[in-house]
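chain below, 408 aa
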Amino acid sequence: MSSQRWQHDFAAELVAGRGRIVATFFDVGYSREIAWNDRPEAARLLAAITDPDRGFDAVVVGEYARAFYGSQAIHLAPLLQTHGVQLWLPEVDGPVDLASPTHQALFLMLGAQSKQEVQRARFRTTAAMQARAREQGRHLGGRPPCGYRIADAGPHPNRADAAWGRRLHRLEPDPQTAPWVKWIFARRLEGHSIAGIARMLNEMQILCPSAFDRARNPHRPAQAWRQRTVAAIVANPRYTGRQVWNRQQTKRRPTEDVIPGVAGVRRLAPSQGWALSDKPAHEPLVSESDFVAAQNITARTRPANGGNSRTYLLTGLLRCATCGRSMESQSSHGNAAYRCRHGHTSAHTAGMRRAGNLYLREDIIVGRVLAQLHSLTSRDAASRSRSLESTRIGAQFILPRSYVLTTL
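prediction:
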């Protein structure tokens, strides 16, 4: 909390003799890139600014780069002005006047410096973690993949960290789940499909990863093995014994606004950006040759129809009236059609199925839609462009240009 202390001291020195600090707002563990509305304490301050009984008439910041990123301060200024609250900064030795060209230029410079500081720190941290993963094979945190567990790897190599009691960690095979990871790779190498492997695991009533480790997966249903769970295991190179870092990246939508949020999504990064250890770092569960062979089974060089492409006119426009899911394009006896399996996949066992699959041929749907639209008069079309009724075929069809056709 030393950062909070010196920022508070800077703020107190700035207002000395001109006012006093009546409340403190300080976010811990939140990047300055994140919009104020998504930082708990900053959001609380925004709410306090709009409160007529707030009890203060100025916001005093200990340092621009610790509170703002880029032009966030410029976007905050209109809100402060609307509610009669001043913004004080040590860099201007008092209240900010955005009507002053000097203060405007200073804000632009401070925003650029704040951005540069974040980018420099990110680059140095990323480079250091890549080097540790490649050269040392070090486990850099995160949950272990299914089949492994975290084990102690001795004291931290940095003497200062070791003096604090910090220790290194590594992966070791989990005696309960590692055999099933090996079993999955063995079945894949025998030519079984991903869905077939998931179905066999469900039939044998083997706990899925989220069910086995509920403490780390309280947000998951933990009901059964799914295709993407098996696919993720088969595609994870850490089972070869090599450490991998940066397989997943958080993609942010950068913003410099104060109010709107910043969306962060974890996505699988391209393999060119992975940091792979130069030598094995833990006990492998599959050989590298078998792992590569499993990837070759996954890859398909040409479509199953011999390379002939097929066009589906209604892709993304049909929704099942039974379960509400978007229907997927599916050929039916050589005809373009659409299918809904109501959330079921071939990974489910027979006892897990409920409603039967729904198949709709494209030519039948288009024919009924065109016939219905043709029957509408120009006056009727204008009044019913938002919601039209048709025959019972079990789907909801959303037409282009905001026309909606509900088929019950």
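The chain has a mean pLDDT of 81. The chain has three domains: 2-118, 148-242+277-298, 318-407.
thats it, cya
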